[in-house]
Amino acid sequence: MTMKNIIIGLILTSTLACAQDKNPKNIENTHEVIVSDINIPWGFTFLPDESMLITEKSGKLIHFKNGKKTSIRGLPDIYPRGQGGLLDIIIHPDYDKNGWIYLSYSSSEGEGSGGNTTIARAQLENNSLTNLQVLYKATPNTTKGQHFGSRLIFDEAGYLYFSIGERGNRDENPQDITRDGGKIYRLNDDGSIPSDNPFINNSEAKTAIYSYGHRNPQGMTLHPETREIWTHEHGPKGGDEINIIEAGKNYGWPVISYGINYIGTKFTDITKKEGMEQPLHYWDPSIAPSGMAFINSDKYGDWDGNLLIGSLKFQYLDMCTLQNNKVVKEERLLDGLGRVRSVEQGPDGFIYVGIENLGIVKLIRK
Fold first, then answer.
1. Which of 31, 94, 147, 265 could form a disulfide with 216 if both were Cys (CB 3.0 to 4.6 A apart)?
2. Exposure string (b/e) for 202-229, b if CB count within 10 Å is 16 or more?
3. In 3D, which of 221, 224, 364 has the Cα closest to residue 300?
4. pTM greater than 0.90
5. Which stretch of 22-26, 101-105, 307-311, 340-344 has the lowest confidence by average pLDDT?
6. How far is CA 200 from CA 196, 204, 357, in A?
7. DSSP string, 56-96
8. Catalytic site residue 147?
């Protein structure tokens, strides 16, 4: 073997080693397939009767009840490009009274070619969406296929939060509050702007913005005790982050980051800067996170309080043990079943997980 081949071999070995995830596999778990044959279950939510609404990224909404899948009609026009499509879904906290369902999806409505992330609400009647109302449409449209976001949650006060990625426009969108993209947003449940949003008095700002400096947040949840908003977002090569979101704060992308370009070059030399928030946790190598939920039930023993995050890249459910808002331990659950896209705790206290090319599974602790 020539010296050149030896050097190339060492480089490849080193590169592969760096790309491997080192989290240990937890064998005290198994699963039950609840809904089968779903391609990309981007989001799902439970209705009061414990049936499920499941979004297929390709643009299909499925109602699963009593073991039967029914396709829901009346969806808006979906712009299925790259990472875009039919994305997240949640119900209003007072769904029993008002019947509102909230959706995020990519839409080509508006000026210019391409599309962008859109938030809408509708009601369900006779297996069809009715009274569809668009609450927010990000601009401008773009034909780029990456970084649509987009998770949805309600907080304790009934405000709607959602994420929109920076749409592949790294150097303009995330740090500019006059532009959409790379932000967490907050609305009233009817789409109006809350009077105490952080940029409400800035005449040039997008006043729905709640925080900025994000790359592509695809996980968002409420902490079961503090009721703080926790998110995670994709970094580039390295630098996926967990953040606790606060009003008006700048989370740094792309000025600060623990990641590098996919080709291995740097785009920033700093990981910290005054006026920019540090992540609660970051991954290197990237796990490509999607979906996020706390265990908040008696179904899993001493796992109660742990944080669950899906890994698209390494195909497992990452269980993070927390102490004083620090991740002190990570373990692989549901290892090797497929790309984990979405995670929710059901009304029965069990954790349900959307896995690509499989469906929705129930997490069971042995």
1. 147
2. eeebbbbbbbbbbbbbbbbbbbeeeeeb
3. 364
4. yes
5. 22-26
6. 7, 10, 43
7. ETTTEEEEEETTEEEEPB-PPPP---TT-SEEEEEE-TTHH
8. yes
Q: What are phi and psi of 255, to 5 degrees?
A: -65, -45
- Active-site position among 92, 147, 214, 234: 147
| Maximum Cα–Cα distance across the chain | 74
Residue position matching structure tokens 């620090």: 326
In this prediction, residue 20 carries a pLDDT of: 64
pLDDT by residue (tens digit) across 121-174? 999 999 999 999 999 999 999 999 999 999 999 999 999 999 999 999 999 999
Tell me the C-alpha distance between 292 and 230, whole Å: 9
Phi, psi for residue 280 in degrees, rounded to 5: -65, -35
pLDDT at 5 over 60: no
**Cα–Cα distance for residue pair 215/234, rounded to 1 Å:** 6
Within 10 angstroms of residue 59's Cβ, the number of other Cβ atoms is 16
| Spatial separation of the C-alpha atoms in residues 360 and 342, rounded to whole Å | 9
**Alpha carbon of residue 78 to chain centroid:** 19
64-95 b/e with 16+ CB inside 10 Å = b?
A: beeeebeebebbbebbebebbbbbbbbbbbeb
As a whole number of Å, the CA-based R_g of the chain is 20
- Give how far Cα 96 sits from Cα of 41, 49, 157, 350, Å: 25, 10, 17, 22
The two structure tokens encoding residue 160 = 């709607």
Q: How far are the Cα atoms of 21, 52, 100, 353 from residue 69, in angstroms, in the given order?
A: 36, 9, 21, 17
The answer to whether the beta carbons of residues 334 and 361 sit under 8 Å apart is yes
| Distance, CA of 306 to CA of 322 (rounded, Å) | 6
Dihedral sign computed on CA atoms, order 108, 114, 119, 125: positive
One-letter amino acid at 219 equals G
pLDDT digits (tens, 9 = 90+) for 175-207: 999 999 999 999 999 999 999 999 999 999 999
Q: For residues 170 and 121, give the distance between their C-alpha atoms in angstroms, rounded to a whole number.
A: 29
